[in-house]
Amino acid sequence: MNTSIRLIGVPTDIGAGARGASMGPEALRVAGLAAVLEAQGLSVTDLGNLAGPPNPWQPPHDGYRHIDEVRAWNLGLHQAVLAELRAGHLPLVLGGDHSLGLGSISAVATHCRERHKKLRVLWLDAHADFNTAALTPSGNLHGMPVALLCGLGPPELTGIGGHVPAVQPAQIRQIGIRSVDAGEKRLVHEHGLEVFDMRYIDEMGMRHTMEQALAGVDADTHLHVSFDVDFLDPEVAPGVGTTVRGGPTYREAQLCMEMIADTGRLASLDVMELNPALDVRNRTAEVAVDLIESLFGKSTLMRKQPPTRAP
């Protein structure tokens, strides 16, 4: 795992159906993210926030809300993440709503093609985010980034990374899913997306789920985690705009993060959809920072650390 972290704030709720995720980056900073990572022996540089167009809060146009503004934010994020990867750093994107996964992951995919590395994306979320304009009346683009990354949608968005599709469904593992529209479900099955939903986690346990999701990850794999805070049960994390009951518990989420850390392959990270306007005394940001700390190697278990793998 790269020990040089670059924090990139993206303060926008441009793709969301509720205002407030634009304040997410600052809430994570207030919760002590940089200090927590530095305490793990990591080098952390906060690059501040990207700039982009304001949220015009308009209704959908041709099935999409704010397509030009979403494109602008994601182009900026794509360039910022790709620059940090090329410089040998680990970009940690502080969202912002999950439409930003488009810019972040398209940059990671570009980097993997340049370096001839395999890509594995772990999408931790209550939602599959595999909608299209034909499937959702809201037009909110934070429900569409996985579909867009897989080439489904308008060229202004699918082509942000210059390669369509940016990723293949086979490169993605979705974990914690529990809210999928009927049409979206059909589309997920048609494209062969591998989904470990909450029923699977209930039946098989988080340990087996993560073993399956991480199967095949090796020294030649770039592991990207896109962590939507609504992945967590709202009892644990109330500060999100799209709460769905029945998500992973705090301990299940900790195990998930610890097993990702154990691979030693985490190379880029998104933290999305934190909405301080809906939070309780910044509790959700503090939980998110706690889990990020585990992603970077903090273990709650009294056991010997596995030997460090070569980068």
UniProtKB/TrEMBL annotation:
<dbReference type="GO" id="GO:0000050">
    <property type="term" value="P:urea cycle"/>
</dbReference>
<dbReference type="Pfam" id="PF00491">
    <property type="entry name" value="Arginase"/>
</dbReference>
<keyword id="KW-0479">Metal-binding</keyword>
<keyword id="KW-0378">Hydrolase</keyword>
<keyword id="KW-0464">Manganese</keyword>
<protein>
    <recommendedName>
        <fullName>Arginase</fullName>
        <ecNumber>3.5.3.1</ecNumber>
    </recommendedName>
</protein>
<comment type="similarity">
    <text>Belongs to the arginase family.</text>
</comment>
<feature type="binding site">
    <location>
        <position position="129"/>
    </location>
    <ligand>
        <name>Mn(2+)</name>
    </ligand>
</feature>
<dbReference type="InterPro" id="IPR014033">
    <property type="entry name" value="Arginase"/>
</dbReference>
<keyword id="KW-0056">Arginine metabolism</keyword>
<feature type="binding site">
    <location>
        <position position="230"/>
    </location>
    <ligand>
        <name>Mn(2+)</name>
    </ligand>
</feature>
<feature type="binding site">
    <location>
        <position position="228"/>
    </location>
    <ligand>
        <name>Mn(2+)</name>
    </ligand>
</feature>
<dbReference type="GO" id="GO:0006525">
    <property type="term" value="P:arginine metabolic process"/>
</dbReference>
<dbReference type="InterPro" id="IPR020855">
    <property type="entry name" value="Ureohydrolase_Mn_BS"/>
</dbReference>
<feature type="binding site">
    <location>
        <position position="127"/>
    </location>
    <ligand>
        <name>Mn(2+)</name>
    </ligand>
</feature>
<comment type="pathway">
    <text>Nitrogen metabolism; urea cycle; L-ornithine and urea from L-arginine: step 1/1.</text>
</comment>
<dbReference type="InterPro" id="IPR006035">
    <property type="entry name" value="Ureohydrolase"/>
</dbReference>
<dbReference type="InterPro" id="IPR023696">
    <property type="entry name" value="Ureohydrolase_dom_sf"/>
</dbReference>
<dbReference type="GO" id="GO:0030145">
    <property type="term" value="F:manganese ion binding"/>
</dbReference>
<dbReference type="GO" id="GO:0004053">
    <property type="term" value="F:arginase activity"/>
</dbReference>
<feature type="binding site">
    <location>
        <position position="125"/>
    </location>
    <ligand>
        <name>Mn(2+)</name>
    </ligand>
</feature>
<feature type="binding site">
    <location>
        <position position="98"/>
    </location>
    <ligand>
        <name>Mn(2+)</name>
    </ligand>
</feature>
<dbReference type="GO" id="GO:0005737">
    <property type="term" value="C:cytoplasm"/>
</dbReference>
